[in-house]
């Protein structure tokens, strides 16, 4: 089930995603992403929080293609570079003016899409899925290449490989809805989820794997898909774009709230808790890990 090519530049046949490392030397392990069309003539620059690191990783040709700065949420390590990045792009001859975000808490945001707002970038169709919890203005951007069927989702701090974000501005019930209703309902259904590659805002996979092995799937016999994730994470520093929504559903405990093993590990021995209670306890355990 688990498959793919891992590198800081990840390209498909038509839709191109360039992952840009930010704050890795200081422990943030953030990603910014350059999402480009098949002909590489139009791009979005997603979450360019650290202007110097982002600009160093963009070529002159790439800079010229950028049509918008896009934020997944307002936190400084995602949106804090909006002003300086816009200025740096303009200095390099890019006349970008669109700053797309979930609220005006993102600096200089001038486009605030509603939930399920559809837009396009060349042949790429993009759906803005609001996922309030980590922040109330969190948005995941679901991208489909209308020519090839290739798909991706940029999840910010809502969904990580093997985990999810802290509930800074929301509740366990909201995170359950964000992950297990909003993201799944609006991305084409079960037969489509294995086609959607996930691009989270941080490279937290190793830490999430450690948490799951020590708190949830303690035994190799508990979850075969998790064993595969663990092996991959142990061998690869960069995991973004390698896994799909279907993969996440197979091993991510925050998306497996009805799994008997997950429930028993958080203390629901009678399998009687609500999903929100299971989610809340999982997050509490992860916060302490």
TrEMBL record:
It holds the Pfam family HAGH_C. The keyword Metal-binding applies. GO terms for biological process: methylglyoxal catabolic process to D-lactate via S-lactoyl-glutathione. GO terms for molecular function: hydroxyacylglutathione hydrolase activity; metal ion binding. It is an enzyme of class 3 (hydrolase). It comes from the Eukaryota. InterPro entries: Clx_II_MBL, HAGH_C, Metallo-B-lactamas, RibonucZ/Hydroxyglut_hydro. Its cofactor is Zn(2+). The lineage of its organism: Eukaryota, Fungi, Dikarya, Ascomycota, Saccharomycotina. Residues 29-202 form the Metallo-beta-lactamase domain. The keyword Transferase does not apply. Pathway: Secondary metabolite metabolism; methylglyoxal degradation; (R)-lactate from methylglyoxal: step 2/2. Its EC number is 3.1.2.6. It catalyses: an S-(2-hydroxyacyl)glutathione + H2O = a 2-hydroxy carboxylate + glutathione + H(+); (R)-S-lactoylglutathione + H2O = (R)-lactate + glutathione + H(+). Belongs to the metallo-beta-lactamase superfamily. Glyoxalase II family. Keywords: Hydrolase, Metal-binding, Zinc. This is hydroxyacylglutathione hydrolase. Thiolesterase that catalyzes the hydrolysis of S-D-lactoylglutathione to form glutathione and D-lactic acid. Involved in the metabolism of methylglyoxal, a toxic compound for yeast proliferation, by converting methylglyoxal to lactate via S-D-lactoylglutathione by sequential enzyme reactions catalyzed by glyoxalase I and glyoxalase II.
């Amino acid at each position: 089930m688990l498959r793919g090519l891992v590198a800081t530049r990840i390209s498909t046949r038509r839709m191109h995603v360039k992952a840009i490392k930010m704050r890795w030397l200081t422990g943030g392990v953030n990603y910014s992403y350059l999402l480009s069309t098949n002909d590489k003539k139009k791009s979005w620059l997603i979450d360019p929080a650290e202007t110097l690191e982002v600009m160093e990783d963009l070529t002159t040709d790439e800079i010229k293609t950028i049509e918008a700065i896009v934020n997944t949420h307002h936190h400084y390590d995602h949106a804090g570079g909006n002003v300086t990045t816009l200025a740096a792009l303009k200095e390099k001859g890019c006349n970008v003016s669109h700053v797309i975000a979930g609220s005006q808490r993102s600096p200089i945001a001038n486009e605030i899409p509603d939930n399920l707002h559809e837009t396009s970038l060349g042949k790429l169709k993009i759906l803005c899925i609001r996922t309030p919890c980590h922040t109330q203005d969190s948005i995941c951007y679901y991208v489909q290449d209308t020519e090839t069927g290739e798909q991706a989702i940029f999840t910010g701090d809502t969904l990580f490989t093997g985990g999810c974000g802290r509930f800074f501005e929301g509740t366990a019930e909201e995170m359950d809805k964000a992950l297990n209703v909003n993201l799944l309902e609006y991305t084409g259904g079960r037969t489509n989820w294995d086609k959607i590659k996930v691009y989270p805002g941080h490279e937290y996979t190793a830490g999430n794997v450690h948490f799951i092995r020590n708190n949830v799937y303690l035994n190799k016999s508990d979850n075969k898909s998790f064993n595969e994730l663990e092996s991959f994470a142990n061998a690869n520093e960069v995991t973004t774009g390698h896994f799909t929504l279907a993969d996440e559903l197979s091993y991510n405990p925050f998306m497996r709230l009805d799994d008997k093993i997950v429930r028993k590990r958080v203390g629901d021995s009678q399998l009687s808790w609500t999903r929100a209670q299971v989610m809340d306890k999982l997050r509490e355990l992860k916060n302490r890990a």
